[in-house]
Amino acid sequence: MGFLMSKSMDANLQKQQEFMLHNSRLQMERQILMQNQMRERQMAMQIAWSREFLKYFGSFFAVATLGLTAGAIKRKKPGMLAPIVPLGFVFAYQMDSAYGTLIYRMRGEAENIMASEHDRLDLPLGTPTYESIEKARRAKTGLISFLEK
Questions:
Q1: Residue 100 DSSP code
Q2: Which residue ranges of the chain lie beneath pLDDT 70?
Q3: How far lies 69's CA from each of 78, 85, 86, in Å?
Q4: What does the radius of gyration of the chain's CA atoms come to, in whole angstroms?
Q5: Is the Cβ–Cβ distance between 91 and 58 less than 8 Å?
Q6: pLDDT tens digit string along 90-122?
Q7: How many helices and strands (H and E) does the chain possess?
Q8: DSSP label at residue 125
Protein backbone atom coordinates (compact mmCIF):
# COMPACT_ATOMS: atom_id res chain seq x y z
CA MET A 1 0.00 0.00 0.00
CA GLY A 2 2.76 2.41 0.97
CA PHE A 3 4.66 1.54 -2.21
CA LEU A 4 1.67 2.43 -4.41
CA MET A 5 1.18 5.72 -2.59
CA SER A 6 4.87 6.52 -2.86
CA LYS A 7 4.82 5.75 -6.59
CA SER A 8 1.79 8.01 -7.07
CA MET A 9 3.45 10.81 -5.08
CA ASP A 10 6.63 10.46 -7.12
CA ALA A 11 4.61 10.74 -10.35
CA ASN A 12 2.81 13.82 -9.03
CA LEU A 13 6.12 15.34 -7.92
CA GLN A 14 7.58 14.70 -11.37
CA LYS A 15 4.58 16.34 -13.05
CA GLN A 16 4.82 19.30 -10.70
CA GLN A 17 8.53 19.74 -11.43
CA GLU A 18 7.89 19.62 -15.18
CA PHE A 19 5.10 22.17 -14.78
CA MET A 20 7.36 24.47 -12.75
CA LEU A 21 10.14 24.13 -15.31
CA HIS A 22 7.72 24.92 -18.13
CA ASN A 23 6.37 27.93 -16.22
CA SER A 24 9.82 29.31 -15.44
CA ARG A 25 10.86 28.90 -19.07
CA LEU A 26 7.69 30.67 -20.23
CA GLN A 27 8.29 33.48 -17.74
CA MET A 28 11.90 33.84 -18.92
CA GLU A 29 10.81 34.02 -22.57
CA ARG A 30 8.24 36.69 -21.72
CA GLN A 31 10.82 38.66 -19.79
CA ILE A 32 13.28 38.51 -22.70
CA LEU A 33 10.57 39.65 -25.12
CA MET A 34 9.55 42.48 -22.82
CA GLN A 35 13.14 43.67 -22.40
CA ASN A 36 13.67 43.55 -26.15
CA GLN A 37 10.51 45.58 -26.76
CA MET A 38 11.68 48.15 -24.21
CA ARG A 39 15.09 48.32 -25.92
CA GLU A 40 13.43 48.80 -29.31
CA ARG A 41 11.24 51.59 -27.94
CA GLN A 42 14.24 53.33 -26.39
CA MET A 43 16.17 53.11 -29.66
CA ALA A 44 13.18 54.45 -31.58
CA MET A 45 13.00 57.39 -29.16
CA GLN A 46 16.71 58.09 -29.66
CA ILE A 47 16.34 58.08 -33.43
CA ALA A 48 13.26 60.29 -33.19
CA TRP A 49 15.18 62.67 -30.92
CA SER A 50 18.05 62.79 -33.44
CA ARG A 51 15.63 63.61 -36.24
CA GLU A 52 13.92 66.32 -34.22
CA PHE A 53 17.26 67.82 -33.17
CA LEU A 54 18.38 67.75 -36.80
CA LYS A 55 15.43 69.92 -37.80
CA TYR A 56 16.39 72.63 -35.32
CA PHE A 57 20.14 72.35 -35.87
CA GLY A 58 19.66 72.26 -39.65
CA SER A 59 17.69 75.51 -39.48
CA PHE A 60 20.37 77.09 -37.30
CA PHE A 61 23.12 75.84 -39.61
CA ALA A 62 21.37 77.24 -42.70
CA VAL A 63 20.79 80.65 -41.10
CA ALA A 64 24.34 80.78 -39.71
CA THR A 65 25.85 79.76 -43.04
CA LEU A 66 23.85 82.39 -44.93
CA GLY A 67 24.68 85.07 -42.35
CA LEU A 68 28.38 84.23 -42.22
CA THR A 69 28.61 84.07 -46.01
CA ALA A 70 26.83 87.41 -46.40
CA GLY A 71 29.05 88.95 -43.71
CA ALA A 72 32.22 87.57 -45.30
CA ILE A 73 31.25 88.95 -48.71
CA LYS A 74 30.13 92.32 -47.34
CA ARG A 75 33.20 92.86 -45.15
CA LYS A 76 35.55 91.03 -47.53
CA LYS A 77 36.87 88.84 -44.70
CA PRO A 78 36.99 85.15 -45.68
CA GLY A 79 37.93 84.27 -42.08
CA MET A 80 34.29 84.77 -41.14
CA LEU A 81 33.51 81.52 -42.95
CA ALA A 82 35.64 79.51 -40.48
CA PRO A 83 32.76 78.58 -38.10
CA ILE A 84 30.98 76.88 -40.99
CA VAL A 85 33.56 74.05 -40.98
CA PRO A 86 32.96 72.71 -37.43
CA LEU A 87 29.23 73.37 -37.71
CA GLY A 88 29.30 71.38 -40.95
CA PHE A 89 30.87 68.41 -39.15
CA VAL A 90 28.22 68.53 -36.42
CA PHE A 91 25.49 68.79 -39.06
CA ALA A 92 26.92 65.82 -40.99
CA TYR A 93 27.09 63.75 -37.80
CA GLN A 94 23.50 64.58 -36.89
CA MET A 95 22.35 63.78 -40.42
CA ASP A 96 24.15 60.43 -40.28
CA SER A 97 22.68 59.72 -36.85
CA ALA A 98 19.12 60.57 -37.87
CA TYR A 99 18.92 59.17 -41.41
CA GLY A 100 22.24 57.52 -42.26
CA THR A 101 24.08 54.33 -41.45
CA LEU A 102 25.63 55.42 -38.14
CA ILE A 103 23.53 52.98 -36.11
CA TYR A 104 24.59 50.06 -38.32
CA ARG A 105 28.26 50.99 -38.05
CA MET A 106 27.94 51.36 -34.28
CA ARG A 107 26.23 47.97 -34.02
CA GLY A 108 29.00 46.36 -36.08
CA GLU A 109 31.68 47.93 -33.91
CA ALA A 110 29.84 46.81 -30.75
CA GLU A 111 29.68 43.24 -32.08
CA ASN A 112 33.40 43.40 -32.86
CA ILE A 113 34.18 44.62 -29.33
CA MET A 114 32.07 41.86 -27.81
CA ALA A 115 33.78 39.23 -29.95
CA SER A 116 37.42 40.29 -29.83
CA GLU A 117 37.80 42.74 -26.92
CA HIS A 118 35.48 41.22 -24.33
CA ASP A 119 37.88 42.07 -21.48
CA ARG A 120 37.02 45.76 -21.94
CA LEU A 121 33.46 44.98 -20.85
CA ASP A 122 34.41 43.64 -17.42
CA LEU A 123 32.96 45.53 -14.48
CA PRO A 124 35.24 46.95 -11.79
CA LEU A 125 35.53 44.38 -8.99
CA GLY A 126 33.85 41.81 -11.28
CA THR A 127 30.22 40.84 -11.62
CA PRO A 128 28.14 41.53 -8.48
CA THR A 129 27.37 38.41 -6.48
CA TYR A 130 24.68 37.67 -3.98
CA GLU A 131 27.27 37.86 -1.19
CA SER A 132 28.57 41.30 -2.28
CA ILE A 133 25.04 42.69 -2.53
CA GLU A 134 24.12 41.28 0.89
CA LYS A 135 27.32 42.72 2.38
CA ALA A 136 26.46 46.18 1.01
CA ARG A 137 22.86 45.86 2.19
CA ARG A 138 23.94 44.84 5.69
CA ALA A 139 26.43 47.68 5.83
CA LYS A 140 23.72 50.16 4.84
CA THR A 141 21.22 48.64 7.28
CA GLY A 142 23.85 48.77 10.03
CA LEU A 143 24.53 52.42 9.21
CA ILE A 144 20.82 53.29 9.33
CA SER A 145 20.31 51.53 12.67
CA PHE A 146 23.47 53.24 14.01
CA LEU A 147 22.15 56.66 12.94
CA GLU A 148 18.77 56.03 14.56
CA LYS A 149 20.35 55.45 18.01
A1: S
A2: 1-5, 143-149
A3: 8, 12, 15
A4: 30
A5: yes
A6: 999 999 999 999 999 999 999 999 999 999 989
A7: 4, 0
A8: T
